[in-house]
Amino acid sequence: MPRVLLIEDDQAVRDGLRLALTYQGHTVEAVETGEEGLARLAGDPADVVVLDLMLPGMDGFEVCRRIRASGDLPIIMLTARNDDIDVVAGLEAGADDYVVKPAQARVLEARIRAVLRRTGGEPRGQGPKPGPERHGDLTIDREGLVVSKHGTVIGLAPTELRLLLELSASPGRVLSRQQLLESVWDQGYLGDSRLVDACVQRLRSKIEDDAAKPVYVQTLRGFGYRFGPL
After folding, report:
1. pLDDT tens column, 58-112
2. Mean pLDDT along residues 3-18
3. Which residue from 191, 192, 211, 206 is spatially nearest to 161, judged by alpha carbons?
4. Could you give the CA distance from residue 23 to residue 43 in angstroms, rounded to a whole number?
5. Phi, psi of 215 (to 5 degrees)
6. Which of 28, 117, 130, 152 is 20 to 30 Å from 16 by CA-CA measure?
7. What are the DSSP calls for 144-195, one per residue?
């Protein structure tokens, strides 16, 4: 049974989402501040965090950064409005997805299940390949889900790993943002391309020597992204 940590300061929203997610089969721990959420994670890890951005004290952006700095736990942020600045800042802080308030329980449930599907396994349509792959200085072990550079393991969040696996499965092939939304985020025409762009930025910061001059994840302006050629 998936364990959800809900960090939300509005009691009505917190209680409503806790009841709805519990009814849908999740074990839900609900707290009202970021500090409480981080303390809860330290003692009782969850499978996914649902995080309000506008929290008293430590805001959701800082909570997101701290969670992401310590591991690859999936994070879905709740934002009060579909504001470009808030959404992009949250994604750049390390969130995997977002839901705009008022959050409908069935939408949040779908996003939770989608992000949990992305925490492991192969991209759809890609079978496991024997042995680690070498791409320049980067080594990708698809079966072990381990990425390393110069022999040092790189810690990637689940969505970052899925994105890298999807792109590197066909080096040189250009994939549009829409294709990546469907294969990595399980989102069709309602998906938000900002999810892709923010995740690419985070991935580049971890695997590239110079994120401003990417070698592995390249942009083809007007078309999308490709892996290599190296």
Report:
1. 999 999 999 988 888 899 999 876 667 778 888 888 888 888 888 888 888 888 8
2. 92
3. 206
4. 25
5. -105, -40
6. 117
7. TTEEEETTEEP---HHHHHHHHHHHTSTT--B-HHHHHHHHS---TT--HHH
Give the Cα-Cα-Cα angle 136, 140, 146 (nearest 5 degrees).
140
pLDDT in tens, 103-129: 888 888 888 888 887 665 333 344 444
Please name the residue that has the structure tokens 């917190």: 14
- Gap between the Cα atoms of 166 and 204, Å rounded: 15
Q: Which residues contact 44 (CB under 8 A, 6 or more apart)?
A: 29
Q: Which two tokens stand for residue 31?
A: 């707290």
At 187, list the tokens. Answer: 């989102």
Is the pTM higher than 0.90? The answer reads: no
Token pair belonging to 157: 């969040």
Bridge partner list, 79: 100
| Rounded Cα–Cα distance for residues 217 and 225 (Å) | 7
